Every structure is written in C-alpha cells, then in structure tokens.
Amino acid sequence: MEDIFEYHNTTCFSKLKSNTKRLYGTSQNYIRKFIKKEFDRKDFYLQELDYNFVLKFENYLRSVKPKHYQKNMQHNAVMKHIQRLKKMISLAYRMEWIKRNPFLKFQSTLEPRERISIIRGS
Description:
Layout: H1 2-11, H2 18-39, H3 51-63, H4 75-94
C-alpha cells in the first residue's frame, strides 16, 4: 500500500487543495494503523487487497474514536475515508498495478445532513 500512497502523494497532490491533502494524510494514517492492528504488519501488498479487506477496514473505522471527538467516527466520516482509499486503489487498478479492483462491489453512501448556519450579528 505504501507504493500507491507514495505515487498518489507525488503525482496527484499538486492538484489538491491543502485541506484535501491533510484529509488524505489522515486517511492514509488510518489505513496504516488498521494494517498494523489487523494483520500485525507494516505494509500490505496491493495484490492482496480484496473485498474482505474493505469490509474489515470499514468496521475498523467505525470503532475509531478520533482525538478531537468523544464518540466513534460517524457514518459520513467513515465513508469519506473509504472513498479516499477507493480513489487510490482505482488509480492502482487503472495503472495495471493490480488485476482486480476490490471496490467493484462496494457501495459507499453518504447520509444527507442539514447544516445549521449561524449568522453573527454586527
């Protein structure tokens, strides 16, 4: 996985805004922690990726309590991390680094949220 992170970060990062770069870094750190916890390894070969990996990663993210938040990660945050992983793995697939895309059958869905706008008085 480190190969696709490195490739993505060197070739695609220049097109991203700084906050998006930060979010990709956060997602990559969650993937590294998941691999260490689930497989007791430092890295994971792209060829080993399968649908089960994606499902286990999703379940892992649902159990994570971010430092800045008292509860477990919410659904949309989980899906955004999954979408970032999916983008990197799809890149590896299109570049023919892997023969199959483990995300082919995975559907990520974001739940619509209403944002409350607070307008401060003058």
